[in-house]
Write a structure and sequence with these properties.
Layout lengths: L10 H14 L11 H8 L3 H13 L3 E4 L3 E4 L4 H20 L6 H19 L3 H16 L5 H18 L11 H15 L3 H30 L1
Antiparallel strand pairs: 1-2
Helix pairs in contact: 1-3, 1-7, 2-3, 4-7, 4-9, 5-6, 5-8, 6-7, 8-9
Length: about 220
């Protein structure tokens, strides 16, 4: 896809954003090789530019260098998951329980993503369900009104997507109850019951972390 459009950011930034989006959408699962020459051809960019992109993905915790294999999409570990959820709690709970007024447009976007997740669930599009769930939480963080935090949270979501992809059968983790809980959080926010929404979100994050930690623990034990 062309990377030459004038959007005010460098070619390397545009390519790294696209690769991050591909990770977010589950198109690049953990262990996928990121080959310089192939990416250069795909994006019509120089290998130096692609090298810069791969370094950026490494700094964002989305790629890693493995001896004799080159650069690959990163496999997340339990310590990574703990850090992801510590950051999620800091950002999402502040967005809900802070003093800034909630933006109705973002609540509407949240509901749109929840409805889309339900439709994806009905079609058993598990990867789409996970992506849409992450979008719900991006709209929560967007209530903070910070483009810098939005960008940081996107990277967290891409890292979390890599945890989702660690489970071969995503239907085991993308279950209907998560969507129901997100819908309840949204309803509480619409009603202005922010304290209850914050508690519901805190419980959601605790349970979500436990679920994914169990996945990573099982995979680590199987690898021994």
């Amino acid at each position: 896809m062309p990377a030459e459009r004038d959007t005010g950011i460098s070619i390397a930034e545009r390519i790294s954003h696209q690769l991050r989006d591909d990770i977010m959408e589950g198109k690049l699962p953990p262990g996928t090789q990121l080959v310089e020459v192939d990416l250069a051809a795909d994006y019509g960019a120089s290998r130096n530019t692609i090298r810069e992109v791969l370094h950026q993905l490494g700094r964002e915790g989305l790629a890693t260098f493995i001896r004799h294999k080159g650069v690959v999409v990163r496999r997340m570990e339990r310590k990574d998951l703990r850090e992801i959820y510590a950051a999620r709690r800091a950002l999402e709970l502040q967005a809900i329980s802070g003093s800034l007024p909630l933006q109705p447009a973002l609540l509407d976007k949240m509901l749109t993503a929840i409805d889309a997740a339900e439709r994806a669930l009905a079609r058993k599009k598990w990867r789409n369900v996970g992506t849409l769930s992450l979008q719900v939480h991006q709209h929560i963080v967007a209530q903070l009104g910070s483009r810098l935090l939005d960008e940081f949270f996107l990277t967290l979501c891409a890292q979390l997507r890599l945890v989702f992809a660690s489970e071969v059968d995503e239907s085991l983790i993308q279950t209907p109850d998560w969507i129901e809980r997100e819908r309840r959080i949204h309803g509480l926010l619409v009603e202005g019951r922010r304290d209850l929404a914050a508690q519901a979100l805190a419980d959601y994050l605790d349970d979500s972390e436990r679920t994914l930690m169990a996945v990573l623990t099982r995979l680590k034990q199987q690898a021994k």
